[in-house]
Amino acid sequence: MSTTVSVSRERMRWQPETLAITAARLSLLVLTVGFAAAAVLGFSVPMRTQMIVYLVGMVALNLPHGGYEHFTNLRHRGLPFGARYVGIYLLAVAGFVALFFLAPVSALGIAFATAVAKGGHGDLHVMDAVVGSDHLKYRPQRALAALVRGGAVMILPLFLWRDVYIGFSQLMVSMFDPGAMGAVATRIETGAPVLLGGYAVALVAHLLGGFLTGGFSRDWLRDVGETGLLVAYFTVVPVVISIGLYFPLWYSMRQSGRSAVAHRAEPDDGLSTGAIWAVFVAGAFMTGTVAAALYLVAPNPLGVGNLLGGLVAFYTIFICVVAMPHVVVGQWLDRDRGIWYVP
C-alpha cells in the first residue's frame, strides 16, 4: 500500500501542471529574494534595463500564451461558434479603442481593472484545477480571493512605486490626449493610501475567511504561501519589471498547468500539427493587424516620451485593448467553457 502511494506521489510530482506551478513559484521567489538583497546592498536597476525586461517578458513570452488560451477554448467548439466568438471579440476591441479616444483616463482605469480581474480570476481557476480551493466554499470568498490575488498586481505597485506608476500612466494616456491626466494624477496620489488600506483589509479577510472555512488545511496553507509570495514580489521588485515578468512567469505558466489538466480530460480532436500551426499563424496575423491599426489611428502612438518609453506605453495600451475582451468575451460571456476552463 505505501509503495503504491509513493509511486503515485512521484508520478504527480512530474506531471506538467505540477512542474508549471513549481516553476512559477520558484521564479517569483528567486526574483523577490534577489531584488530584496539588491535593495539591502544599495543596487538598483536602471529604468532603461527595466523597460527592456518588460518588453521581452510581455511581448516574447506572454503574448503567444494569450493566443494559445483562445485556441484551446475554441478548438472543440465548431466554426459557427468560433466565428461569432471572433466577431464579438473584434467588436469589443474596436469599442475599447474608441473609449480611449473619448475618455482615455477612464479607459485606462478599466484596463487596470481588467488586469486585476485577469490575474485574480485566472489564478482562482488554477487553484480549482491544480493548487486546491476547498477552503473557498462560498461565492463571496471566491470573489475576495480573486480580488486579493489580482489586486496585488495593480494596487501594491501603485502605492509602493507611485512615481513610476503615475509617470507611465501619463505616458500611456498621452497617446490619445497629452493633457488628459492633469489633476487626475494628484487624485491618484491622494487615493493610493486609501486603496492600500482597502487591499490590506481584503487580504486579512480573505485569509481569515479561508481559515474559518477550511482550518489548517493543505489548500489554505498553499493559499497563504502563494498570496504572501505575490505580496512580497510586488512589494520588493520594481513595478516595470514586476508586472512585465508576472504575466509570463506566473499567470501564463500556471495557466499552462491548468490547460494540461483540462486537455487530459478531453478527447483528441484529431487536428494535425499543420492545422494547429495554421490557426496560430492566422491568430498572429490578426493580432499584428490590431497592433498596426492601433499605431495608425492613435494621435501620438509613442506618447510624448523617448523611443523606449514610448514602445512600453504603446505595447501596454495594445495589450490592454486585447486583454479586456480576452477576459470579458473569452471567459465571462462564455459560460459553457471559457479560456480558464476547468473540467
Automatic annotation (TrEMBL):
Keywords (A to Z) from UniProt? Cell membrane, Dioxygenase, Iron, Membrane, Metal-binding, Oxidoreductase, Transmembrane, Transmembrane helix
> Which Gene Ontology terms of cellular component type are present?
plasma membrane
Q: Where in the cell is it found?
A: Cell membrane
Q: Which reaction does it catalyse?
A: all-trans-beta-carotene + O2 = 2 all-trans-retinal
Q: Which cofactor does it need?
A: Fe(2+)
Organism of origin: Halovenus carboxidivorans
Q: Which Pfam families match?
A: BCD (PF15461)
EC number(s) stated in the UniProt entry for this protein: 1.13.11.63
Q: Which HAMAP family match?
A: Beta_carotene_diox
Bilayer-spanning residue ranges:
20-44, 88-117, 143-161, 192-212, 232-253, 274-298, 304-329
For this chain, one GO molecular function annotation is: carotenoid dioxygenase activity
- What NCBIfam families does the entry give? blh_monoox
Nuclease keyword on record: no
Per the entry, what this protein does is: Catalyzes the cleavage of beta-carotene at its central double bond (15,15') to yield two molecules of all-trans-retinal.
The family assignment reads:
Belongs to the Brp/Blh beta-carotene diooxygenase family.
The answer to whether keyword Nucleotide-binding applies is: no
Query: What is the topology of this protein in the membrane according to its UniProt annotation?
Result: Multi-pass membrane protein
Give the principal location in a single coarse category: membrane
Q: Which GO terms describe its biological process?
A: carotene catabolic process
This protein is called: Probable beta-carotene 15,15'-dioxygenase
